[in-house]
């Protein structure tokens, strides 16, 4: 096998990769050593070694009982090394127009990739959407002895049935929820890049929808091969990591090349700009630097990201997206024609919408309460806002300053404490100001996870998690994850100090947002006076003048855009 595993490769493009070197170490019993070798590029220069390691990893994948293998391919196709014309095996509709990348394959090898994908389409009739399949198949063709072996490798990735571990999205529902999950992760881990996207792109979600293509399709072969090393070892989470790192490097290049003024551009232009950056990333970044950046991001555990993905899937299902759904545009639902606020413009509400969790960004803003209509009464505030979750509070002061808060939990929750002022909510709450420039302040634990006295979760220990990666231990969620944050509920963390999880509170005398040595927002019972100061929960500066008088207060809910 090792001697033939480069039969599809155009070796004139492979640089200093050895075709004939003996494979060396190919079997690993120590998971930490396997992960270290994958991340460090141990197999990058030895084609035979990488091929042998890949075959070991793919054979070890737990798969469905009936998973098509190489023998099935030979029975269907016959001689699996004969030349194929790509036009004789057109790609199935479920790849959504994704072309087979050449990478470092021979020109005639593209026909072989088409033949393999065509056979896969026949053997996996439940696949309804899988745009990354041509890319993954083309990559694995480099390290396959023949088409049949490549077919078996891809089949095992598609048939993997290990709980909580998927390698390829096979439905539009899974693909779109992954896009939403990536958007959520960008909010948390790439705030500077997200701020740039909000400032320059007309539709941020449209830009983030390309995230998977950046990694599987746009990256040059030498980068894609290194990503495949860790992808096969550590799973889908690696794709998120690499895409976040790409966005960080793009933001750095864009910021260095731009002047002080950033102007809005059509999202298509931003998408093309990012694609060009990724395709030429080798001019400024090495594969080593890209992976180093990717694994320096302190992501939450695989279990927590899976919960977030499930919550996003549920929100899409509530919008009518099914597992059989073919591609459908799911766009940000803020309709400027139907939006009218006395505090912020349609453009500003779109920018605020880009900060909120993706599963709620699908919804249309719905005005629940405004002091200009309902009066300055805390009782009326509660009466109009209870039963809605989440909500967005906007405040304009008599000095013209604008600030507010995204509040994850129903205000009715305050009644659990009786007349006592007690805090509730989740770590998806955040506070913000609009002037002198837009700025969001999130839960302090997100940027400083070391403040949570957390232990590593079992699933990451089993996969040899990065010792530097802080993953929070999850209890079994007590409530529906579509309402509670799946990974940012304070009860999921062993916090050293309660002061870092004081999100929202209310009684008959006041409402408070953020606590610990101060309140991000305190508003009196007449919704007339307030104060703002630094608090430990959000680590925010004062959001406006420290003591202020309210000119107008609005509360917005999140209406199902499909039902409007």
TrEMBL record:
<dbReference type="InterPro" id="IPR000195">
    <property type="entry name" value="Rab-GAP-TBC_dom"/>
</dbReference>
<dbReference type="InterPro" id="IPR006571">
    <property type="entry name" value="TLDc_dom"/>
</dbReference>
<dbReference type="GO" id="GO:0012505">
    <property type="term" value="C:endomembrane system"/>
</dbReference>
<feature type="domain" description="TLDc">
    <location>
        <begin position="342"/>
        <end position="559"/>
    </location>
</feature>
<dbReference type="Pfam" id="PF00566">
    <property type="entry name" value="RabGAP-TBC"/>
</dbReference>
<feature type="compositionally biased region" description="Polar residues">
    <location>
        <begin position="455"/>
        <end position="474"/>
    </location>
</feature>
<dbReference type="InterPro" id="IPR035969">
    <property type="entry name" value="Rab-GAP_TBC_sf"/>
</dbReference>
<feature type="region of interest" description="Disordered">
    <location>
        <begin position="455"/>
        <end position="483"/>
    </location>
</feature>
<comment type="subunit">
    <text>Interacts with ARF6.</text>
</comment>
<dbReference type="GO" id="GO:0045202">
    <property type="term" value="C:synapse"/>
</dbReference>
<keyword id="KW-0968">Cytoplasmic vesicle</keyword>
<keyword id="KW-0472">Membrane</keyword>
<keyword id="KW-0770">Synapse</keyword>
<dbReference type="Pfam" id="PF07534">
    <property type="entry name" value="TLD"/>
</dbReference>
<protein>
    <recommendedName>
        <fullName>TBC1 domain family member 24</fullName>
    </recommendedName>
</protein>
<dbReference type="GO" id="GO:0030659">
    <property type="term" value="C:cytoplasmic vesicle membrane"/>
</dbReference>
<comment type="function">
    <text>May act as a GTPase-activating protein for Rab family protein(s). Involved in neuronal projections development, probably through a negative modulation of ARF6 function. Involved in the regulation of synaptic vesicle trafficking.</text>
</comment>
